[in-house]
Amino acid sequence: MTDNVDKLNELLKRDPDTGLYSRHILLQNLSRRIRENPKSPFAYGIIRMDEHYQRIRHYRDRQKILLYITAQRIKEIVGEEFLFQSDRSDEFLVIIPGVNSEEELDPFFQNLMDKISEPYNQPASDLSFGCHMGMALYPTHAETVEELMDNSEIALGIFEQRHDQGYIYSQALGEAHNRRRTLETIMTKAVGNNLQGFHIVYQPLVNEDKEVLSCEALMRWDAPGFGSVSPDSFIPIAEETGLINTLGHWILYSSILQVKKWREETGFNITVSVNVSSIQLEYSHYIENVRSVLESLDMDGECLHLEVTESTLMDEPEEIVKKLDELRDMGIKIMLDDFGTGYSSLSYLHQLPIDTLKIAKEFVDDILTNQKNLDVVKAIQSISKSFGLITLAEGVEHQDQFDLLIKEGCNMIQGYIVSPPVAAMEFSERFLKK
Ligand code: C2E
Ligand code: CA
């Protein structure tokens, strides 16, 4: 009888899918370790499967098998007694005893990364994925179990969001995290307070003769009591909090209203390009919202271009493609933003409901000196021509870049060579008045 109770107790400590000890056991282990050997250093870390793993979610059985195999792989490196299952099914928790510095931890990190991303055998030989990690050192970064948990989570969150290969906590990361939390609070208040501090700037999009055909509407935010915050900092926070839905609706409405006024004032049919984040596209009322904005302003879809990134398209391809089709049915043009930096292969392009490719700034930057980047631009150019797509190069700063891109067949240009993004008033003064 006691034998059976012991067995049951042992089973309850373990995760049914991976057979690993649970987080609860880990917490006990960490507390005991710190209490009994306060002077012995160790690392604590979270290993979370990456976005490629998340995309296998349609095949739940495969995911389970892959999780089990991944657990075995990690075990080989850290040892069975130091590996635990997190409460999340796509996450493992590890302890690495005896390490006291980043240099000592690096080889473990590298081994784990390499091992986890090794190819899999059947039934998953067609799948590949990696992981993100967040680690903190005891006692350098954290002296309590709670701090170890918090700081490794902070490191994981920040590196995951930045798509960075980093993994280890530092004071600077802690400060970045606090700044983010502060901004989150200020932003929630500001959005609720009539979008306090938010405004829109417009950057011209030109043809080979530098005639302005369109503009990109870009958000700016002077955070109350904080100063100007770059969109690369505040957009991810807006996405994380869901505030992007409100902000996205506001920029869509305001920039179409702006275009309507410009058209009435100048008689010139300028169009506007608005960025859409994947969170917005996933929102079930997004299409209706766009339709009602156009209707309420009495404008046709042809005045609007929506910019989506490759990763947005890859998230839920079928769902997103359906929505983009509906938008195109309204006359709206779809631009694939930051093209070349994401996952889609060139041959996949013809299956996507898009009209324009925006060649990412990183290819444009050294196009004159880096043959590889020039080759990429040439390949994009030739394939988009055969699929009847328009190409636009962004981040063009110099005349020789401009000339080369036009020579290669690029249809439109955006960048400081023409103008940085400017306020609506300046835009109409400089680009719309004859
Ligand atoms: P993006 O969509 O790739 O926008 C282009 C960025 O490049 C803009 O940065 C623009 O100011 C900058 N840029 C344009 N030409 C040049 C150039 O010649 N040189 C250099 N160095 N930069 C140039 P910005 O305005 O800081 O926006 C950054 C990102 O924030 C945008 O990247 C976009 O992803 C996001 N963002 C901005 N406004 C919105 C918005 O309304 N909604 C959403 N979802 N995202 C937005
Ligand atoms: Ca854009």
Provide tags for this entry:
nine-stranded mixed β-sheet, Alpha-Beta Plaits, 434 residues, 49% helix, TIM Barrel, elongated, alpha/beta, binds calcium ion, binds ligand C2E, 2 domains
Low-confidence spans: pLDDT under 50, at least 5 residues? none
Radius of gyration: 26 Å
Shape: elongated
Largest sheet: 9 strands, mixed
Bound molecules: ligand C2E, calcium ion
What number of domains? 2
Terminal Cα span: 94 Å
The portion of residues assigned to helices is 40-55%
- What's the total helix number? 17
Q: Mind telling me the CATH class of the largest domain?
A: Alpha Beta
Q: What is the name of the CATH superfamily of the largest domain?
A: EAL domain
Sheet/helix structural class: alpha/beta
Please give the CATH architecture of the largest domain: Alpha-Beta Barrel
Number of strands: 13
Strand content: 15-25%
CATH topology of the largest domain: TIM Barrel
Structure description:
32% of the residues are buried. The strands form 2 sheets. Strands 5, 6, 7, 8, 9, 10, 11, 12 and 13 form a 9-stranded mixed beta sheet that branches. Strands 2-3-1-4 form a 4-stranded antiparallel beta sheet, sandwiched between helices. A hairpin with a 5-residue loop joins β5 (198-206) and β6. The protein has 2 domains: 12-169, Alpha-Beta Plaits, CATH 3.30.70; 197-431, TIM Barrel (Alpha-Beta Barrel). The model has no long low-confidence stretch (mean pLDDT 92). The chain is elongated and about 90 Å long. Helices cover 49% and strands 18% of the residues. α4 packs antiparallel against α5 and α9 runs parallel beside α11. It is an alpha/beta fold. It has helices spanning 2-12, 23-36, 51-54, 60-78, 102-116, 145-162, 171-192, 231-241, 244-266, 278-282, 286-296, 310-315, 317-329, 361-365, 371-386, 399-407, 424-432, and strands at 42-49, 83-85, 91-97, 131-138, 198-206, 212-223, 227-229, 271-275, 304-309, 333-339, 356-359, 390-393, 412-413. The chain has 17 helices and 13 strands. Ligand C2E binds next to β6, α8, α9 and β10.
